[in-house]
Design a protein that fits this description.
Layout: H1 6-37, H2 53-57, H3 82-95, E1 103-107, H4 110-126, E2 133-137, H5 143-151, E3 154-158, H6 168-181, E4 188-193, H7 205-214, E5 222-227, E6 249-255, H8 256-260, E7 267-271, H9 273-280, E8 284-285, E9 290-291, H10 301-339, E10 353-357, H11 361-367, E11 371-372, E12 375-379, H12 386-403
Parallel strand pairs: 2-3, 2-4, 4-5, 5-6
Antiparallel strand pairs: 1-7, 6-7, 8-9, 10-12, 11-12
Helix pairs in contact: 3-10, 4-5, 4-9, 6-7, 10-12
């Protein structure tokens, strides 16, 4: 059948029209997303990162890059980015002072990192014949109780203060009550918030250790997981912050698409290598020629490459500089809001989240602000410059005037 027959010409015409329609739709969608990016204030992501354009045009984005299984075992297939993944893990492990004893992998995001930390605690205590009691605060990310349900963990929720930090007296009372029903004292898996979702509150690991010490809870029966989705790459640069792993933290989840700015959702889970081995042992899978040590089998190698590239490009000094700028701009926003006498303004010290009374629906929609319980917040990321803050405050004043 020759191409000049009517049905072939009609088919070719349909193909061209379909392609043109797809290209036009994508162009409109891109323009819309770029417009949204200019007022992306409420969530802890960087909406545009020109640093990553190099990877986009390099041709790597069109390759199949599958980091199946353990990052330290290449496996049978050769198309992966595990070499880069390990370097990204080493960078973060070095920030937290565990470069000589760590295991981890690149996750799909903070939820998976939290799930793995909780999963590891369940397996660690389960291997000892002690199903754990999982403790988390009422201000924890929504992934925490969801993961607990998935893992069928026994849980206790600890109330918080008004700023969102764990109430340590409530923790103490809860643990005392636990002894009445669990005389042998179960293994405790405690979730530590390094920056809560709405207010950015930090649960103090030293205060938690003090509570455990006061009631003589054995150290060998405690594992602490840190949910550090937003602040994981800011926390190490703030003077005065205690070293988490030196103070009893056993694992940590960090998001790559937040402060690191990878654009595509991803994250890092890290723990002590020795602890990981005690929890899981060997899980060799002949089919892929590697250890099955991660939540998902196939993992997106391009995400690991993105994370490696951003960390490599910024380095320690770049991240520290950006953290300092974001905190200073958050202080600037706080000052601007206070000068206009806006209600309920607060900002935790050395943080980049500014909380204030929920504004009008128009402001919520324009600036994509999350609101909860009568408050809203701005997460001051790298893209929120002082000129953008000025524009936000100007719009906020106008909305108040219109309300009057």
């Amino acid at each position: 059948m020759s191409l000049d027959q009517p049905e072939d010409l009609e088919s070719a015409k349909d193909d061209i029209e379909r392609l043109a329609e797809a290209e036009i739709r994508l162009a409109h969608f891109q323009a819309e997303q770029i417009r949204y990016a200019t007022t992306y204030f409420g969530y802890p992501e960087v909406p545009v990162n020109n640093d990553l354009s190099t990877l986009g045009v390099s041709g790597l984005a069109r390759l199949h890059l599958n980091n199946a299984g353990d990052p330290w075992v290449h496996g049978s297939a050769q198309m992966h980015t595990k070499e880069f993944e390990r370097e990204a893990l080493a960078f973060v492990a070095d920030l937290y002072g565990i470069a000589d004893d760590y295991w981890g992998y690149t996750t799909s995001g903070g939820t998976e990192g939290n799930l793995y930390g909780m999963y590891m605690a369940r397996e660690y205590f389960g291997a000892k014949g002690e199903p754990p009691l999982f403790i988390y605060s009422a201000s924890s990310h929504y992934s925490i109780p969801k993961n607990a349900r998935l893992l069928q963990l026994s849980t206790r929720t600890i109330e918080c203060d008004l700023a969102g930090e764990m109430n340590y007296n409530a923790l103490k009372e809860t643990l005392k009550e636990t002894e009445a029903t669990w005389p042998e004292r179960p293994g405790l898996a405690i979730s530590l918030n390094i920056g809560t979702t709405m207010t950015g509150a930090i649960d103090q690991v030293i205060r938690i250790n003090d509570v455990l010490s006061e009631i003589d809870w054995p150290q060998e029966k405690v594992l602490i997981h840190a949910d550090a989705a937003l602040l994981g790459l800011i926390y190490p640069f703030i003077e005065g912050n205690p070293n988490l792993f030196e103070n009893g933290v056993n694992s940590i989840a960090v998001s790559g698409h937040k402060f690191a700015g990878t654009i595509h959702p991803c994250g890092i889970f890290l723990t002590k290598k020795s602890l990981h081995g005690q929890a899981f042992g060997d899980h060799w899978i002949p089919y892929v020629g590697t250890e099955d040590t991660t939540i998902s089998g196939s993992r997106n190698g391009f995400l690991a490459l993105n994370l490696w590239y951003v960390l490599r490009k910024k380095g320690r000094h770049g991240l520290a500089r950006e953290a300092k700028t974001c905190i200073e701009n958050a202080e600037y926003l706080t000052k601007q809001l206070n000068e206009m006498n806006y209600p309920e303004v607060s900002m935790a010290p050395n943080q980049n989240i500014v909380v204030f009374q929920k504004p009008s629906d128009a402001m919520i929609n324009k600036y994509q602000l999350p609101a909860e319980g009568g408050i809203a917040h701005v997460v001051v990321m790298q893209h929120i410059t002082r000129s953008r803050i000025d524009g936000f405050c100007r719009n906020l004043r106008e909305s108040l005037e219109q309300a009057d």
